[in-house]
Amino acid sequence: MIFSDLGLHPDLERATKALNWLEPTPIQSQSIPVALKGSDILGCAQTGSGKTASFVLPILHHLMTKPGHGLRALVIVPTRELAAQVENCFKDCGKFTPLKVASVIGGVGYDRQRKFMSGGVSVIVATPGRLLDHLKSGRFKMDFIKYLVLDEADRMLDMGFLPDIRAIISRLPRERQTMLFSATLVKKVEEIAAFALKNPERVEVSRPTETAEGISQVVYPISQAQKTDLLVELLKATEMRSVLVFTRTKNRADRLKNRLSDQGFSVGILHAGRTQGQRMNAMDNFRTGRTQILVATDIAARGIDVREISHVINFDVPQNPEDYIHRVGRTGRAYGVGDAITFCDREEEPLIAGIERFTGVVFPRAMLPTFAYAIKPNLEPPKPKTFSGINFRRRPIARSRRALFRR
Ligand code: AMP
Predict the structure, then answer these.
(1) How many helices (H) and strands (E) would you count in the chain?
(2) Looking at ligand 1, which residue's alpha carbon is closest to its atom 14?
(3) Does residue 205 line the site of ligand 1, with CB under 6 A?
(4) Number of CB atoms found within 10 A of residue 303's CB
(5) 20 to 30 Å CA-CA from 230: which of 71, 192, 300, 316?
(6) Per-residue pLDDT for the chain (407 aa), expressed as one digit of tens each?
(7) What residue's CA is closest to ligand 1, atom 20?
(8) How many independent structural domains does the chain possess?
(9) Is residue 397 part of a domain?
């Protein structure tokens, strides 16, 4: 399937070309036709599968082709970071349309957000708490919402947003199209589906290679020289309960441990150069929460099974995709929620591309806005982007074999 098969508005098809998207991802080829005919969707897809555009493109299509004006679409997401990603996807896909999108998240002035209502915004991307504040105070009216998306529903449940979501939905018109996306369709998600959706069609893509469910994976482009400084800033800026940091070599692990200790963090170290006793000690301290951070190399980390690791940070991109899956599998065990962050210098980009092909997931790129970057980070995944997971590598090889036979 190619994008022109989907029958999207020409301005949207043009945007997919400008984004260099060669073909719809599997979740997109399943969801977009269902969404275009107006049915509700219960979608099971992970971040990185292209799920955002699978609801963004049909919503923009409806807004462009159906009569109406003002605020007509609402997307509810669990976190501010995801709100920014979804807002960007609307902006990228809608860049040749006159439609406007805005986000309503905590930490931003109420007045500015209220102005969206009179400013001709068609789509709002919101986190539940702040949106509900606006609704309760009567500052926002949602009387004309025709399209509702609940994105990463399982994560919203884990974060305790169920009552807020119920309260928001009860204030929306009943006549609407609703799409719910979740990385897992656990029972609780099905419960939200039961009150939010009407006769939904199920769309589902399974990942070719599984990392633990519920892990959000992100890449921070950063030069080698600034990796330590970025890590320190991130640790200060984000609430990270227990962090496992992977480096490529023992020396790098030692140096990083010293730098982090100098900054006042409680840090342990685990690599093959330490005695068995030292390693057991480091593990123990980490497991019981006496140290917040454990810096480790791959080999030493094989046996780690600490529950409740909130973050895995790949200070260096692992040399092979299996190591990536193994490292990232450390998080997301106890809570089903965890973050895996990978620092990627330009020279490591081919390694990330290999991991993305292997897992069938394109990781979102992110930056820390408060950090003094020496080189502006490139937040676009490398182009051209194709998206067929495992088949990705097979097709060009098959073609080149045919070429060989012809000769
Ligand atoms: P998502 O799963 O929505 O977070 O998307 C992950 C990444 O895939 C984002 O960087 C998108 O820009 C990218 N993407 C979405 N759809 C496509 C496509 N059809 N082809 C290539 N890349 C895509």
Answers:
(1) 16, 13
(2) 50
(3) no
(4) 9
(5) 300
(6) 889 999 999 999 999 999 888 888 888 999 999 999 999 999 988 776 789 999 999 999 999 999 888 899 999 998 887 888 899 999 999 999 999 999 998 877 777 777 766 678 999 999 999 999 989 988 788 889 999 999 999 888 878 899 999 999 999 999 999 999 998 777 788 888 998 999 999 998 754 344 545 568 899 999 999 999 999 999 988 878 889 999 999 999 999 999 999 999 999 998 878 887 888 788 889 888 899 999 998 766 655 656 667 888 999 999 888 778 777 766 544 333 468 899 999 999 999 988 888 777 888 888 888 899 998 888 876 654 444 433 333 333 333 333 333 32
(7) 21
(8) 2
(9) no
Type of residue at 214: G
362 in contact with ligand 1, CB cutoff 6 A: yes
Owner of token pair 């780690």:
304
What are phi and psi for residue 308, nearest 5 degrees? 65, 35
Report which ligand 1 atom has the smallest distance to the Cα of 361: 6
CA of 299 to the centre of ligand 1 (A): 33
Q: Which two tokens stand for residue 3?
A: 């994008």
402 in a domain, yes or no?
no
Range of the structural domain that residue 305 is part of: 215-391
State whether the Cα torsion 59-64-68-71 is positive or negative: positive
- 406 domain residue, yes or no: no
Distance CA 299, CA 336 (A): 25
State whether the beta carbon of 34 lies less than 6 angstroms from ligand 1: no
Same domain flag for 27 and 169: yes
Work out whether the CA dihedral 156, 159, 163, 164 comes out positive or negative.
negative
The whole-angstrom distance between residue 332's C-alpha and the CA centroid of its chain comes to: 14
| 106, 147: one domain | yes
Q: Do 111 and 245 belong together in one domain?
A: no
On whether both 178 and 279 belong to a single domain, the answer is: no
* The domain boundary residue, chosen from 204, 229, 247: 204
Eight-state DSSP code of residue 21: B
Same domain, 232 and 330: yes
Q: Provide the pairing of β-strand 123-126 with 177-182.
A: unpaired
Indicate if ligand 1 lies below 6 Å from the C-beta of 387: yes
Q: Domain containing 36 — which CATH number?
A: 3.40.50.300
**Structure pTM?**
0.59
* Cα 271 off chain centre by: 31
**Residue 210 one-letter amino acid:** E
Closest C-alpha residue for ligand 1 atom 15: 50
Q: Which atom of ligand 1 is nearest to the CA of 47?
A: 2
From the CA of 24, give the closest atom in ligand 1: 19
